[in-house]
Design a protein that fits this description.
By secondary structure, the chain is of the alpha/beta class. Helices cover 38% and strands 11% of the residues. The protein contains 14 helices and eight strands. The protein has an eight-stranded parallel β-barrel with strand order 1-2-3-4-5-6-7-8, surrounded by five helices. The longest helix is centred in the middle third of the chain and has 25 residues.
């Protein structure tokens, strides 16, 4: 590929869409979402200059929504916060990354939405909340291991996270709150003593439950659902225009029908019953993370199966498909976007597409591959590193290709 990948991205997003026959979303939304995730582990909103570049790039790429990470590991990329200010924010002390993104994005013509992306039950073991409360609030495996997650089965955890997110809605004119890690880490998690005590009190259980115990699984699933339900209710009470969304699990092959939903990894492994959340209106729209490599026949099949389920789910007009550009070559991501925006065989269309991510827009722009030779060796197109060996040169290569995908600038050959 050569030159204007960014122009192609803009062209793909100009494809016409028509409303899905499923019921209208409960909150007014664009006719088609063209969104991108902006993670806080890379540049994006950490300085005034980065924010200005981000909004300029979004306009050039014909995007209409920015999902910006403002809570990464128990920190805040906004000034009116209960949690500590992120240490890597650049600029004067009064610089407020979230406020500045909102200011510039909302002033853009056409207007660009801003959704505050927040890690929910993951805070990291070095975060202030985990240092202060991890002994009681920290999630544990059945064997007692910990990994920086807070336990949804602890009532104080739910109260704390609810307050953090409501404060964002009260203090900033965000268009939405976007929940990530709104789940358990896996089926063997949930064994903090506080959660076990609550489970015993509610169910009468007298022994530590096995991870596969159906009642214990249902109880944990209900903790996550209850958090999403209550947050949505209070957000609507506070600001009816705000939209609650979530980055949702799509591991492996998707269900063939609604009857298969209870066998998905989202439902059985991480206890994230996101289909129920959409059906009941707890999410205004869902962003399933269909992160699959299109150059892999197996993963391409997974992508297609999830996409078919999402389009013919009955709520396609509340689904924004997340594509994993960081796992794909640019032409593969563009092909996935075209498939996402096309109608299903039944004529159903989804609400739009979200790209992961602004900092890692292709395998060429993803620094994870450059720093992991074993991963890079599995890519079909070589030489991946272009003969470069130093971390500085490799990082520069990643940034160049990333800029090419987003903006069409750079003049490099892929």
């Amino acid at each position: 590929m050569l030159r204007s990948v960014g122009s192609l991205l803009s062209g793909v997003f100009l494809l016409a869409t028509s409303p899905s026959p499923s019921p209208a979303p409960p909150v007014l939304a664009p006719a088609q979402y063209r969104a991108i995730w902006v993670d806080a582990f890379h540049d994006g909103i950490k300085s005034p200059e980065q924010v200005e570049q981000l909004v300029s790039d979004a306009r050039r790429a014909n995007l209409n929504a920015l999902i910006v990470q403002v809570r990464k590991t128990g920190d805040a990329y906004f000034n009116h916060a209960d949690e500590p200010r992120a240490k890597d924010i650049e600029g004067p002390r009064d610089f407020d990354p979230l406020a500045y993104v909102i200011q510039l994005a909302h002033a853009s013509v056409p207007r660009i939405e801003v959704h505050a992306w927040v890690n929910t039950f993951f805070s990291g073991q070095s975060s202030r909340v985990y240092v202060q409360h991890g002994n009681v609030w920290g999630n544990r495996t059945v064997d007692g291991a910990a990994s920086g997650y807070l336990d949804p089965g602890v009532p104080e955890v739910q109260i704390y996270m609810h307050r953090v997110f409501m404060n964002i809605a009260r203090n900033y004119q965000v268009d939405g709150i976007h929940l990530d890690f709104v789940r358990y880490p896996g089926a063997t998690w949930g064994y903090s003593q506080s959660a076990l005590d609550n489970y015993a009190a509610e169910t009468g259980a007298t022994a530590t439950p096995d991870p596969s115990d159906p009642q214990w699984q249902a109880w944990r699933r209900a903790r996550v659902t209850g958090f999403v339900r209550d947050l949505h209710h209070d957000l609507q009470e506070e600001r009816p225009s705000i939209k609650l969304s979530g980055a949702l699990i799509c591991f492996g092959a998707g269900p063939l029908s609604a009857a298969d939903w209870s066998r998905t990894s989202a439902f059985t492994s991480v206890f994230q019953d996101w289909r129920d959340w959409i059906v009941r209106g707890y999410l205004d729209f869902a962003v399933p993370m269909n992160y699959d490599s299109d150059w892999s026949a197996r993963e391409k099949g997974w992508f297609g199966r999830w996409l078919a389920f999402e389009k013919d789910s009955g709520f396609a007009n509340r689904i924004v498909i997340g594509v994993g550009a960081f796992l794909n070559y640019p032409e593969d991501t563009l092909a996935q976007i075209r498939r996402v925006l096309s109608p299903s065989t039944g004529g159903h269309r989804v609400l739009g597409v979200a790209i992961y991510s602004y900092a890692s827009s292709s395998v060429y722009g993803t620094d994870d591959f450059y720093t992991a030779p074993d991963l890079a060796a599995g890519l079909p197109r070589q030489p991946y590193a272009g003969g470069l060996t130093t971390e500085t040169d490799l990082a520069s290569r990643a940034r160049t290709f990333n800029e090419l995908f987003i903006t069409g600038r750079g003049g490099v050959r892929i």
